[in-house]
Specification:
The chain is α+β, with helices and mostly antiparallel strands. It is 29% helix and 28% strand. The structure holds nickel (II) ion (NI).
Length: 172
């Protein structure tokens, strides 16, 4: 396993639409292992493959609390089914938008169809933090960031600050 560098906004690579995975093999499992290690190291609760520069439809997540046992989840080719009409407001952050947290409104629950770590077809009922997190991560597969759900003013303010920080870091 290896920790891989995480791409941060406004990098254009984050805007790519990721391609479906043809088969879940050892190569893909090695990538998912790297993604999980990278996510834990950051630390974060979700990571899409595109965030480490791999434009394929793969997500890892672990929403277990600090006091709980680790509970890694792997989603290959995930699809949202039956998003609830009821909306939920939840504070979100993103490893590709470091240090910024904003409330985002999304369907409060949904079902998710996906392939697991072994390539087995699964369906999951998601609500609460799980629903928020999986929708946030699936957005990444479409090249969408959580800041795209904010007002244009807020989004541009965040992107401006990120660009400034990156300039300062590059100048060091
Ligand atoms: Ni994210």
């Amino acid at each position: 396993m290896a920790i891989r560098p995480i791409i941060t906004a406004p990098d254009d690579r984050l805007r790519q639409v990721s391609k479906p995975v043809a088969s879940v093999d050892d190569g893909l499992r090695a990538l998912m292992d790297d993604m999980l290690e990278t996510m834990y190291d950051a630390p974060g609760i979700g990571l899409a493959a595109i965030q480490i520069g791999e434009p394929i439809r793969v997500i890892v997540m672990d929403i277990a609390g600090d006091e709980e046992e680790p509970a890694p989840q792997y989603f290959v080719n995930p699809e949202i089914l039956d998003p609830a009409e009821e909306m939920n407001l939840h504070e979100e952050g993103c490893l590709s938008v470091p240090e910024f947290y904003e409330e985002v409104e999304r369907p409060a629950s949904c079902r998710v169809k996906y392939l697991d770590y072994d390539g087995k077809a699964q369906t999951l009922e998601a609500e609460g933090l799980l629903a928020t997190c999986i929708q946030h991560e699936i957005d990444h597969l479409e090249g969408v960031l959580f800041i795209d759900h904010l007002s244009r003013l807020k989004r541009e303010r965040i992107l401006k600050k990120l660009k400034k920080e990156q300039r300062l870091a590059a100048a060091e």
